[in-house]
Design a protein that fits this description.
The chain is mainly beta. It has 2 domains: 1-30 and 243-395, no CATH class; 31-195. It is built from 2 helices and 34 strands. The protein has helices at residues 3-17, 157-164, and strands at 23-28, 34-39, 44-49, 58-64, 70-77, 80-82, 90-92, 94-100, 103-108, 114-116, 123-125, 136-141, 153-154, 169-172, 178-186, 190-192, 202-204, 207-213, 216-221, 226-231, 237-242, 246-247, 258-259, 267-269, 272-277, 288-294, 300-307, 310-315, 330-334, 345-350, 358-364, 367-373, 378-383, 388-393. The chain has a 5-stranded mixed β-sheet with strand order 2-3-4-5-13, with no helix packed on it. Strand 19 and strand 20 (226-231) form a beta hairpin. The chain starts with a helix and ends with a strand.
């Protein structure tokens, strides 16, 4: 029996004997609509925040993994109130986050590129969006030692214009530290979607997750229900997979005949991408799932099914993206167990994709993303509505 098999057996035994042994607490407060969290170099966490209702207040925060102290790394990133998927509007800006050495890759959401049309589910083009950088990928490069920076970098409106024109922008903070930002990929904010009686209707894109592998960005587009592949050198865009709508089992009672897939993150395991599908209105419990998508030669299959509003997933038994197989242990994060009923979200462990899940937490309020600190056995979870990070200490 190999070490990995021993690990999985011990993992199941630990949680089966002591499923309530983990503890959770609010670790960090004061975040502005946090979307994604990852571990950084040294002893830090990195968080993307969509900002407030004021345009261009998106930011990246650094959080100390030991103390929970937050500081702003970069402010003034593109953001605006978006009405995509919510007629009341939500701040939308920095979303997906991926790190490679001293370089961060950040997806920017749709912002206010589209506005509500004259009816449910209709969108029109906004002729004056708050930023020219919506639905893009920004590449931010730091010199060595950036975990120890004081932060305090600010992107201005003039900087955004320069980036949109193809220039590389250099920012300085009060300590004289420098970083550079460039526009690594620029995608269409929307595509035409004419309807009878409404020829100007469009379908907004919404980038919400990113992985870089062998010079290709793989982007989760929650608006177009796709994984898009973008050549990081040329900017050429292709569609790796489109997740089809699925029949609405509640049709006739609530919602239309079909439900959108809504991919809301993407991770790589070997030569496959692991993608959580939130599913759209009416957010039917049990309809959400985790998909496994082949990078080459392709293929799209269900990995873990029967979820409700899946928002993130990560391997529990390895943090090595190059690990060859997908048949391992997973943590799943669900935004809510029943969105229409206002139920909280939950964190679960699957010792294998087809194993019965073990619920670790069931009282999370609007969780969006998670990161694992292997050294301490701690999971950090962002909560978008409260603007907090929850720390979960595993047994």
């Amino acid at each position: 029996m190999n070490l990995r098999s021993l690990f999985l057996i011990s993992l199941v035994l630990v949680f089966a004997l002591s499923t309530n042994a983990q503890t959770s607490s609010v670790f960090t407060t004061g975040l502005h609509t946090p979307n994604k969290i990852i571990t950084g170099p040294g002893n830090i966490l990195l968080v993307t925040e969509a900002g407030t209702t004021t345009p261009n207040t998106g930011r990246i925060s650094v959080i100390d993994r030991t103390t929970g102290e937050r500081r702003t790394l970069i402010d003034g990133l593109p953001s605006a109130v978006s009405f995509l998927g919510n007629p009341m509007g939500d701040p939308d800006g920095p979303s997906g986050l991926y790190r490679q050495g001293n370089t961060l890759y950040i997806t920017i959401g749709i912002g206010d590129s589209t506005l509500p049309g004259a009816g449910p589910g209709l969108e029109v083009v906004n002729p004056s969006p708050s930023s020219p950088l919506f639905d893009s990928v920004l590449e931010i490069t730091f010199p060595r030692g950036f975990p120890n920076f004081g932060g305090g970098f600010t992107l201005t409106a003039a900087d955004q214009t320069a980036l949109a024109s193809g220039s590389t922008v250099r920012l300085l903070n009060d300590d004289g530290r420098a970083l550079s930002i460039r526009l690594a990929a620029d995608l269409q904010n929307y595509r035409p979607a004419p309807r009878p009686g409404f020829p100007d209707n469009v379908k907004g894109s919404h980038l919400y997750g990113i992985v870089l592998y062998r010079k290709t960005f793989y982007l989760a587009d929650a608006g177009h229900n796709q994984i898009k592949a973008v050549n990081s050198a040329t900017g050429d865009i292709s569609i790796l997979v489109t997740f089809p709508d699925r029949p609405n089992p509640l049709f006739g009672t609530i919602g239309g005949p079909f439900v959108e897939a809504v991919p809301d993150n993407v991770h790589r395991v070997g030569n496959r991408l692991i993608v959580p599908l939130l599913t759209g209105f009416p957010f039917v419990p049990g309809l959400s799932e985790i998909r496994s998508v082949g990078i080459r030669p392709g293929g799209d299959v269900s990995l873990i099914g029967g979820l409700s509003s899946a928002i993130d997933v990560m391997r529990a038994d390895t943090d090595d993206e190059d690990f060859a197989g997908e048949d391992g242990a997973y943590y799943t994060l669900e935004f809510s167990t029943n969105q229409l009923a206002g139920e909280p979200g939950r964190l679960r462990l699957y010792s294998s994709p087809d194993a019965a899940p073990i619920t670790l937490l069931s009282d999370l309020i609007t969780p969006t993303s998670m990161a694992l600190d292997d050294d301490s056995g701690t999971i950090f979870i962002t909560n978008i509505a409260a603007g907090t990070v929850t720390r979960v200490i595993l047994p």
